[in-house]
Amino acid sequence: MEEPRNPTEAQPPAPEAEPPESLEALVPKRRLWPVFAVLGLVIAAAGLLAFRSMTATDPLRILVAIDLDGYWWEGSQPAARLADELGEHLAELGFDPVKGGDPKVMKALESAKDPKEAAKALGAGFIIEARLAPEIVEHPIKEGYFELRVDAPVTLTFLDKGTSTERRIRGYSGATKKDRAMALLANSMASQALDAVIAQLMDHPSVREITEGSDIKLLERLASARRFVKDRAANLDRAAGAYVARAKEIEAEEQGRVTFLSPQAAEDLLVGTAEGGYFVKTADVSVFHSVRSRDLARSEALETVEWRPLDRPAVPTTDPAAVKPMWRGYHVYSYPSSQRDGDRVALVEDFFGWAKTITVVDRSGQSKRVRIDPEHRFVDPKLAPGGRFVAVYDRPDADAQADLMVLDTDGGKEVFGLHTENQSLGGFAWLDETRLAFVYVPDASEGDAPHLAVVDVGKQPLSIERPFRAKPGEDLRNPAASSDGTKIVCVVDGDEPGIAVIDTATWRRKVYAAPGGASWPAFSPDAARVAFETRGAGGTDIAVLALSTGEIKKLTVGSATERVPRFSADGKRVLFEVRYRDPVFPQKRSISRIASAAVEP
C-alpha cells in the first residue's frame, strides 16, 4: 500500500488566474469574427424588420384624403365629417382607415409634401382622393340661403404600384348657413364615395390575395366586405334587369308604333316642342347599394331643363355624353312650359321650400328670375309669344285658391291679376304676344257657367272681354291655342262631352265627341288636328282628332299612363310622356319616359 505523502512534499497549488483585461484575453483574436458576424446579422435583421414595419404597405389600411374646404388633418370640419363617415363605413367592412388623434399620425400627415407621401409613411396600402370644390349658389332670400353643388372625380390609388381607378361623384345640399350646408354635403358624399370605390377595392389583386388566401383571421375580418360586395353586385344586376324587363314589356305593348326617347329609368316631363327637338325637365335617379341599410337606395341628381334633338336618343344627365342642360337646380315646382315661337322656357324654381321663383331660361343657359317670393306658390307658368309676358297661377298660401297673374318679364312688374274670390279658374293660353285667353266662372257662388275670356295685357286700361259662354251645366277646361291664335280648343264636360274647337274671329264652337273622354288637348302646327289624352285599357292613351272629318285615331294602346301630348314642329309626330311604376322602388317613384308616335298623313 502506498504511503501517504508528506504535505511538504506535495505539489504546490496553482496560482489563481487574473481576470482578463479584454475579450481578446479569453478568445483568440482570429476566432472573434464569427461572433461579430452573427451579432451583425441579428442587428441588421432587427433593423430591417423595424424599417419594414414602418414603411411596408398594408392593403387593408386606407387613407381618406378628400379635400372639402381643406383636408381633415388641416382642420377642415366638413372634410373631417366626411372622412369620419367614410372611415366608419370602411371599418364596418373590415378595413383600417387612418384616424387622427395619434401624434405620430398627425406629424406624418402634416409634414408630408402631399397626401400620397403621407399615406406611404403611414403604411397605407390605398388612398382615396378627391377634391370637392363645391359650386356655391347664394340664393337671394331675405334670411339668406346657400346651395352647394359638387361634380368631381374620386380616385382610388394602390400605393405600391401607383395604379389608380376613377369614378365621378355628384351631390348637392342647401341650408340658410353655409357651414350647415357644408355639413349636409359631407354626409351625403360619404356614401357616394364608398359606392364609387368599394368594388374596385375588393377586386384589387392585393385584397383578393387576402380574400382567396387561407389566413382565417384576415378572412373573418373581410367577411362583411365580401358579403357586401357580393350583395351589391347582385342587387345592382337585379335592378338593371328589372328596368330592362319592364321597359321591354311596355314597349312590346305598343306593337312597334311608339319610339321611346328617354332612358329606361328616366323621370322626364315633356315641356314643349320646337324645330328639330323638344324641351324636357329631368329628375335623374341613380341606384346604389347602401352600406347602412344593406339594400338598394336612390341617389337623386339635381333636376335639369334640357333641349334635346328629336333624332338622337337621350342619355341620363350624369352620363358624359349628355347634352349640357339649359338649367340645373334643386327642384322645378309644377310643369314648366316653352315659348311657342322661340327657345325659352318658363319654370317655377323651388329654393328647398324656402321660396319660389318665376324664372325664364333660354337654350344658351341664360336665365332670369322674374319674381322671387318666400310665401306664394306659383304654378303652371306660360310664356307669351315673343317672351315679353309670363302668365302663372298664384297661390298666396298652400290652402288658397289660385289667382291668375301676368308679369312683365323685363322687370317682374305685375300687369294683370285676376283674384279668385267667388271665382273658379279652368286654365289659360296665350293667343298672341299680348292677348291671354282664360276659362273662369265669374261668380261660382251663383252657379254661373264658365266663360272663355280674353284680356289684352298690352293695352291700357285693361279690360276683360267675355266673348264665349258655356251652356248651362257644362264645364270648360284645359284651353290651348293654335299657333296663329285663330282657334282655341277646350275640353267640354256636360250633356255633350268632348272636345270643343272655338273660332276666335266668330267665337262659334264645334264640339267633337270623345268616347273615352279627353284631357290636355294640343293643336298640330297647321291647326288641322288635335292630339289629346283619353282613357285606355290600363291607364290613358294618346289619340288624334282630325278636325276635317271628326275621325279619332288612337296612337297608343299600352297599359301605362300616356299623357301631355305635343305635336312635333313639323307635325309628323306626337310626343308624349309614358308613365308607370318604378319596378325597383314601386312605392317611391314612377318612371316617366318621353316617347313619340307617327301621325298618318
Q: Using the 3D structure, state the CATH architecture of the domain at 55-213.
A: 2-Layer Sandwich
Using the coordinates above, name the CATH class of the domain at 55-213. Answer: Alpha Beta
CATH level-four homologous superfamily name of the domain at 55-213:
Lipoprotein like domain
The overall pLDDT average reads: 88
Helix/strand/pairing category: alpha+beta
Percent range of helical residues: 10-25%
Question: Hey, roughly how much beta strand do the residues contain?
Answer: 35-45%
Name the overall outline: elongated
Q: What is the tally of helical segments? A: 9
Largest sheet: 6 strands, mixed
Instruction: Specify Rg, calculated over alpha carbons.
Output: 38 Å
Beginning-to-end CA distance, first to last residue: 151 Å
Low-confidence segments, ≥5 residues, pLDDT <50? 1-55
Can you tell me the CATH topology of the domain at 55-213?
Double Stranded RNA Binding Domain
Number of strands: 37
